[in-house]
Structures are given as structure tokens and as C-alpha cells.
């Protein structure tokens, strides 16, 4: 699974971090960091993260 | 092929319901009926980035999951009636759709002021078309703007209007402070100060008595007799549930559609309600049914309702825990953000500063019976991150009363 976050859209809401903490996190500067090729076992979490992102910045590409 | 699940209302809650029905195993037909001509789109930017011109209108469209590529979209079609006993809905024009299951997702529309005066020049913000019209009006040079209603949407629009260079922006509200209903006095006072420092004027403690002007609005007459000159008026005075089509079925439609603890409507397991229109009890709190107009609710309600409905239609006997979402809400105004977790409105009488101070980044805790029921951060990214640390604590809490 491939995950892409449009960093021009992302406004660091952090909702994705609650939904899929294994994939999304904040670095020390408070900016979003993420795993771009997470294991398929995490698909449910990542779909949930894409759903709850207020800016709809997360795209899942298979 | 059997009858479809009909989803009435094709916006965020309708789309999420369709996606979650697929996730819950319903592989029968799904028909979404929506009276707007557009595919589902995201509303929050309509008062923020998109109104400000920082993001294009095209960026609002949701990307439906692949699992719903086979659903039928009936856009520009309005549901005008339903007969729940016979399991049918009727569309404008007379077409009748039988259903196996029905999802009520018709949301809200803006309430309007009913006072004398011209209608032209008065705006609301709910749809794409609304925001397009408002953006055009706000970007005319020298616009004098009056926003009626100092709630979240009104204050967001006021902030955006200032950023767009409007000559004057005044917010009118009968309450003494902005956003006081949902947030209580402490933060409302801090918000008033921040808005004033950034150029927004306020006329508080007074309502609107009427509008001046012949063909279009030139002024707003306040309850205390003052007249505010205005080229653009924005009415953000609350919303009205789109439930007229459900009348005649013996439902409680007093404020949205009343549901049980599993979002089922009128004791009928084949009918569920999702999104802004659902008035549901939240088992996390006092169990009193409330509507919650937060962006997180369409997704949360869709998940629970879809599971319950799909199981019922499959003849499965499931007994999930009652619906108990943790509400979350945000609002962007000027250069600051409000981020809320939980139900601050239940703890407005006992608000404490948990972190920071009211002039900078601040985190407020809302308590009921001494227990934390909600947190609201005001400020920058650091404040929101601080609020997030309390989220786990709020999630752990059992229901306040059994
Ligand atoms: C300007 C604005 C800014 C917002 N900002 C925030 C924010 O910052 N943070 C936050 O948490 N929340 C925010 N919200 C709230 C959030 O957007 C809503 O909670 C969410 O859109 C609700 O989705 P819904 O699908 O339940 O309802 P709606 O989006 O209202 O969808 C209902 C749909 O059903 C259609 N419909 C109605 N009646 C019929 C009928 N009879 N037949 C067919 N179709 C019908 C409607 O046209 C509409 O398309 C904002 C809302 C607005 C309007
Ligand atoms: S939820 Fe969306 S906006 Fe927030 S940090 Fe994640 S990607 Fe960015």
C-alpha cells in the first residue's frame, strides 16, 4: 500500500495520528511525518486516517 | 436483485454511510439521492481557505472509496416523502423508490432572519454556491460587511472577510460574547479580544430588527436602534434540520430526527440516521439525545449505523455497545485555531485553565461534577498538541451516569 499526504493541504490537525499512530506521527518540530509504504495489515487504520483528515490531504494508492 | 439501501442526502454523512455499509458487508445495491447537483464535498473550507481564495473550489470534492464505485448516484434529486411502513420514499416528480434499508442523511440548512427589508445582499454559508456568491461579494473593493450571529461559522467568516481586505467587518449577536453558547465565558472573552485586535468590530447584546435599502441591503437596523451601513450581510444564525420529507410517520422530528442508542429511527431497525440531522443519545455522557454539528460526526455515526443496519438486513443478531463517540471539533479564525475534544458544553460552569494563559496559547478544561468532560485549545499548533494529550483521558472515561 502507498500513502501520499499532500503537504500543501495538511495543516497539522493530527487526526491521522490518532487513527493510525504506526503510520503518522509528528516530528520534533511539530510537522507531520509518515510512513509512505506501510504494511497492508494497517490498511483499516490508514483508511480511517484518510477519512478523518479535515483537509482530506491523505491519499491511498494501491 | 433485491431492493437497495436508499441513502437520502448525498453529502459527507451519506457518502460515509455508503462506504461503511460496504465495509460492514452489504454487497447489495445502494442508491444515494441528493438535491445538490454536486458529488459530496467538504464544507468546513467554505468559510475558511476556500472563501479566502487560498484553495480552489475544486479541492473540496471528497474522494469516494473504490468500494462504492458501483453505487447509484441520483444527484439534483430531492426526496419529498417517505412511508416507513411501506418501505418507500418518493422523489420530486413522483418517482417512488422501494428500499430494503433507509439511511437518513439530509443534514441541515441555514436558519434565516425573519425581519423586514430587502433580501438582496443577504448571504448564508452552507453550500458551494453560497460560498461562491459570498466570495464575489466580499472581494468587491470597499465592502462593508455585517455578520449576524457570533457562532463559529460567523466568526470564521468575519476573520476571512478581514483577511480579504473588507473595509469594515462587524459581528452582531444578542449574546454578550462570541461563541459563548458552546464555549462558556472564559474562552469567549479571550476570543472577543483576539478578534478585536485583528480588526473585527462587534455589536453585542443586541439583535437585528430589520434591513435598510430599496432593491438591496444598504444597512442593518439593530434592536437598540443603531444602524450599521452594510453592502454585504452574512446570516449565520443557526440551522434547521431537513426532515420535512419524514413527516407523517409518527417520528419525533422536534430537532432533527430522534434515534435510539444505535442510531435507529422510530423503532424501525431498517431505518437509521447519520450526520448533522441525527439527534442521538451519547452513552459516553448523560444519555440525553442531542444533535452534534461537528465534522467528526458523519464518519462516527456512519460507522455505527452501517454496522447495525447491515447486520439487521443480513438477519444477524448483533448486540454492539451503544454509540459513544468522542466528539471533536476545530475552528480556524485569523491566525489561531480552536481544537476541542469531548463535550465542553456539558462543563461550561466549571472551566479551568489547564495550561498556558489566556493571552497566548491556552488550554481550557471543562468539568462536570469535578470530572473532566472536555478540553479546548486556543492558539497555535502547540496548544492543539497539548489538547491531544488529554484526548486519551477523555476516551478512557466511563459514562457519567448509567
Ligand atoms: C461553512 C461551514 C463550516 C464548517 N466548519 C466546521 C469546522 O470548522 N469544524 C467542524 O467540526 N465542523 C464544521 N462544519 C460542520 C460540518 O461541515 C457538518 O457537520 C457536516 O457537513 C455535516 O454533514 P452531513 O452530511 O450530516 O450534512 P450536510 O452536509 O448538510 O448534507 C446533507 C445533504 O442532504 C441534502 N438534502 C437535504 N434534504 C434533502 C432531500 N429532501 N432530498 C435529497 N437531498 C437532501 C442537502 O442538500 C445536503 O447535500 C462546518 C459547516 C459549514 C456549513
Ligand atoms: S489529519 Fe490531515 S491535516 Fe491533520 S496532520 Fe494528518 S494529514 Fe495533516
UniProtKB/TrEMBL annotation, chain A:
<keyword id="KW-0813">Transport</keyword>
<protein>
    <recommendedName>
        <fullName>Ferredoxin</fullName>
    </recommendedName>
</protein>
<dbReference type="InterPro" id="IPR001080">
    <property type="entry name" value="3Fe4S_ferredoxin"/>
</dbReference>
<keyword id="KW-0411">Iron-sulfur</keyword>
<comment type="function">
    <text>Ferredoxins are iron-sulfur proteins that transfer electrons in a wide variety of metabolic reactions.</text>
</comment>
<keyword id="KW-0249">Electron transport</keyword>
<dbReference type="InterPro" id="IPR051269">
    <property type="entry name" value="Fe-S_cluster_ET"/>
</dbReference>
<dbReference type="GO" id="GO:0009055">
    <property type="term" value="F:electron transfer activity"/>
</dbReference>
<dbReference type="GO" id="GO:0051538">
    <property type="term" value="F:3 iron, 4 sulfur cluster binding"/>
</dbReference>
<keyword id="KW-0003">3Fe-4S</keyword>
<keyword id="KW-0408">Iron</keyword>
<dbReference type="Pfam" id="PF13370">
    <property type="entry name" value="Fer4_13"/>
</dbReference>
<dbReference type="GO" id="GO:0005506">
    <property type="term" value="F:iron ion binding"/>
</dbReference>
<keyword id="KW-0479">Metal-binding</keyword>
From TrEMBL, chain B:
<dbReference type="InterPro" id="IPR023753">
    <property type="entry name" value="FAD/NAD-binding_dom"/>
</dbReference>
<dbReference type="GO" id="GO:0016651">
    <property type="term" value="F:oxidoreductase activity, acting on NAD(P)H"/>
</dbReference>
<dbReference type="GO" id="GO:0005737">
    <property type="term" value="C:cytoplasm"/>
</dbReference>
<dbReference type="Pfam" id="PF07992">
    <property type="entry name" value="Pyr_redox_2"/>
</dbReference>
<dbReference type="InterPro" id="IPR028202">
    <property type="entry name" value="Reductase_C"/>
</dbReference>
<dbReference type="InterPro" id="IPR050446">
    <property type="entry name" value="FAD-oxidoreductase/Apoptosis"/>
</dbReference>
<keyword id="KW-0560">Oxidoreductase</keyword>
<protein>
    <submittedName>
        <fullName>Rhodocoxin reductase</fullName>
        <ecNumber>1.18.1.-</ecNumber>
    </submittedName>
</protein>
<dbReference type="Pfam" id="PF14759">
    <property type="entry name" value="Reductase_C"/>
</dbReference>
<keyword id="KW-0274">FAD</keyword>
<dbReference type="InterPro" id="IPR016156">
    <property type="entry name" value="FAD/NAD-linked_Rdtase_dimer_sf"/>
</dbReference>
<keyword id="KW-0285">Flavoprotein</keyword>
<dbReference type="InterPro" id="IPR036188">
    <property type="entry name" value="FAD/NAD-bd_sf"/>
</dbReference>
<feature type="domain" description="FAD/NAD(P)-binding">
    <location>
        <begin position="5"/>
        <end position="289"/>
    </location>
</feature>
<feature type="domain" description="Reductase C-terminal">
    <location>
        <begin position="329"/>
        <end position="388"/>
    </location>
</feature>
Amino acid at each position: 500500500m502507498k500513502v501520499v499526504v499532500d503537504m500543501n493541504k495538511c495543516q497539522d490537525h493530527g487526526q491521522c495520528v490518532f487513527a493510525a499512530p504506526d503510520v503518522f506521527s509528528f516530528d520534533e518540530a511539530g510537522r507531520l511525518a509518515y510512513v509512505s509504504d506501510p504494511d497492508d495489515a494497517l490498511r483499516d487504520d490508514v483508511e480511517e486516517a484518510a477519512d478523518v483528515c479535515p483537509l482530506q490531504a491523505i491519499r491511498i494508492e494501491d | 436483485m433485491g431492493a437497495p439501501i436508499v441513502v437520502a442526502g448525498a453529502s459527507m454523512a451519506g457518502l460515509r454511510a455508503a462506504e461503511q455499509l460496504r465495509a460492514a458487508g452489504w454487497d447489495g445495491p445502494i442508491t444515494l439521492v441528493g438535491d445538490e447537483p454536486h458529488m459530496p464535498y467538504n464544507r468546513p473550507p467554505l468559510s475558511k481557505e476556500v472563501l479566502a481564495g487560498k484553495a480552489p473550489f475544486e479541492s473540496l470534492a471528497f474522494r469516494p472509496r473504490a468500494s462504492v464505485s458501483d453505487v447509484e448516484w441520483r444527484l439534483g434529486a430531492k426526496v419529498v416523502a417517505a412511508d416507513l411502513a411501506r418501505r418507500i420514499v418518493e422523489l420530486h416528480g413522483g418517482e417512488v423508490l422501494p428500499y430494503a434499508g433507509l439511511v437518513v442523511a439530509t443534514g441541515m440548512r441555514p436558519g434565516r432572519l425573519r425581519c423586514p427589508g430587502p433580501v438582496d445582499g443577504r448571504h448564508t454559508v452552507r453550500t458551494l454556491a453560497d460560498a461562491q456568491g459570498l466570495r464575489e461579494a466580499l472581494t468587491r473593493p470597499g465592502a462593508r460587511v455585517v455578520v449576524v450571529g457570533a457562532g463559529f461559522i460567523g466568526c470564521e467568516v468575519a476573520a476571512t472577510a478581514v483577511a480579504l481586505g473588507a473595509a469594515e467587518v462587524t459581528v452582531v449577536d444578542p449574546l454578550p460574547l462570541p461563541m459563548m453558547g458552546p464555549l462558556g465565558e472564559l474562552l469567549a472573552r479571550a476570543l472577543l479580544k483576539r478578534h478585536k485586535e485583528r480588526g473585527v468590530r462587534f455589536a453585542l447584546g443586541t439583535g437585528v430588527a430589520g434591513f435598510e435599502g430599496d432593491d438591496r441591503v444598504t444597512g442593518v437596523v439593530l434592536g437598540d436602534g443603531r444602524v450599521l451601513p452594510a453592502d454585504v450581510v452574512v446570516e449565520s444564525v443557526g440551522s434547521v434540520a431537513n426532515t420535512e420529507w419524514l413527516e407523517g410517520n409518527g417520528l419525533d422530528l422536534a430537532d432533527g430526527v430522534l434515534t435510539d442508542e444505535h442510531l435507529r429511527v422510530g423503532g424501525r431497525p431498517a431505518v437509521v440516521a447519520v450526520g448533522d440531522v441525527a439527534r442521538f443519545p451519547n452513552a459516553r455522557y448523560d444519555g440525553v439525545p442531542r444533535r452534534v454539528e461537528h465534522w467528526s460526526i458523519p464518519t462516527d455515526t456512519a460507522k455505527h449505523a452501517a454496522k447495525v443496519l447491515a447486520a439487521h438486513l443480513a438477519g444477524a443478531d448483533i448486540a454492539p455497545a451503544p454509540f459513544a463517540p468522542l466528539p471533536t471539533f476545530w475552528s480556524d479564525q485569523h491566525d489561531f485555531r480552536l481544537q476541542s475534544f469531548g463535550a465542553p458544553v456539558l462543563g461550561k460552569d466549571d472551566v479551568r485553565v489547564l495550561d498556558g494563559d489566556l493571552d497566548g496559547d491556552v488550554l481550557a478544561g471543562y468539568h462536570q461534577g469535578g470530572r473532566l468532560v472536555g478540553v479546548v485549545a486556543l492558539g497555535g499548533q502547540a496548544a492543539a498538541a497539548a489538547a491531544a494529550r488529554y484526548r486519551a483521558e477523555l476516551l478512557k472515561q466511563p459514562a457519567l451516569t448509567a
